[in-house]
TrEMBL record:
UniProt organism field: Panagrolaimus davidi
Protein name: Thioredoxin domain-containing protein
Record domain Thioredoxin: where: 1-85
InterPro entries referenced in this protein's UniProt entry, alphabetically: Thioredoxin-like_sf (IPR036249), Thioredoxin_CS (IPR017937), Thioredoxin_domain (IPR013766), TMX_domain-containing (IPR052454)
GO cellular component, one term: endoplasmic reticulum membrane
Chain ranges passing through the membrane: 131-160
UniProt membrane topology term: Single-pass type I membrane protein
Keywords: Disulfide bond, Electron transport, Endoplasmic reticulum, Membrane, Phosphoprotein, Redox-active center, Signal, Transmembrane, Transmembrane helix, Transport
Pfam families attached to this UniProt entry: Thioredoxin
C-alpha cells in the first residue's frame, strides 16, 4: 500500500496517525506500507497521476489499484486481510505507472516543479517581483511555441509540398511517366520493324 501526501495538506495530516498505525501492522500482514511526499517526488506522483491528496494505491504483483475505502487503520487492515483489493478494477494499461505515456507525464510533473522552484528562487532570493517572473515565463513559452511551430510547419511543407513546389513535382512525375510510355512505344516499334 502506498499513500501519496503533501505536508501542506490538512486531510493528509489527519490520515497520518491511522496510516502510521497501519504501517505498524505491516509485518503481521506480510505487506509493505509506504508514503510518498509529492512535493519531493513530483515524478513519482506524475507517474501515478495523483490529482487529489491523499491518494492511496494497492500494489501487488505489478498490478495497481486505487483504494477508495474508509481512511482508518481497521479499514486498511480488513482491506488486506479480507482481500477486498481483488474486487477493485486494476488501473487500465494506459494509466499504468510503468507505461511510456505515464513516463512522459512524470517528466512534465518534474518540469513543472523545476519551473516553480526557479520562480520561487527568482522571487525570494533574487528579489524580482512575481509579475516580472510570470512575464518572463510567458515570453519564453510564447517564443518556444513560435520556434517549434515554425519548425513543424517547415517539416510538413518538406514532406507534403503544396503550391508551386507541388505543381512542379506533379509535372516532373507526369514527364517521367510520358517518357517511359514513349520509350515503351519506340521499343515496340523497333521490334516490329526489326523483323
Amino acid at each position: 500500500m502506498v499513500e501519496f501526501h503533501a505536508p501542506w495538506c490538512p486531510a493528509c495530516r489527519d490520515l497520518q496517525k491511522a496510516w502510521n498505525s497501519f504501517a505498524d501492522w505491516s509485518k503481521d500482514l506480510n505487506i509493505k506500507v509506504a508514503d510518498v511526499d509529492v512535493t519531493t517526488n513530483p515524478g513519482l506522483s506524475g507517474r501515478f497521476l495523483v490529482t487529489a491528496l491523499p491518494t492511496i494505491y494497492h500494489v501487488k504483483d505489478g498490478i495497481f489499484r486505487q483504494y477508495q475505502g474508509p481512511r482508518d487503520k481497521n479499514a486498511f487492515i480488513s482491506f488486506i486481510e479480507d482481500k477486498r483489493w481483488s474486487t477493485i478494477e486494476p488501473l487500465p494499461s494506459y494509466k499504468h505507472p510503468n507505461s511510456p505515456q505515464m513516463g512522459v507525464v512524470a517528466v512534465f510533473f518534474k518540469l513543472s516543479m523545476a519551473v516553480r522552484d526557479f520562480h520561487n528562487h527568482l522571487v525570494e532570493n533574487v528579489g524580482i517581483p512575481s509579475w516580472v517572473s510570470y512575464l518572463g515565463f510567458a515570453t519564453v513559452t510564447l517564443a518556444l511555441g513560435c520556434v517549434l511551430g515554425f519548425m513543424i510547419v517547415c517539416v510538413i511543407d518538406y514532406v507534403f509540398p503544396t503550391g508551386a513546389a507541388a505543381q512542379a513535382l506533379a509535372k516532373e512525375k507526369a514527364a517521367k511517366k510520358n517518357a517511359s510510355k514513349n520509350a515503351e512505344k519506340s521499343k515496340g516499334l523497333y521490334e516490329i520493324f526489326a523483323f
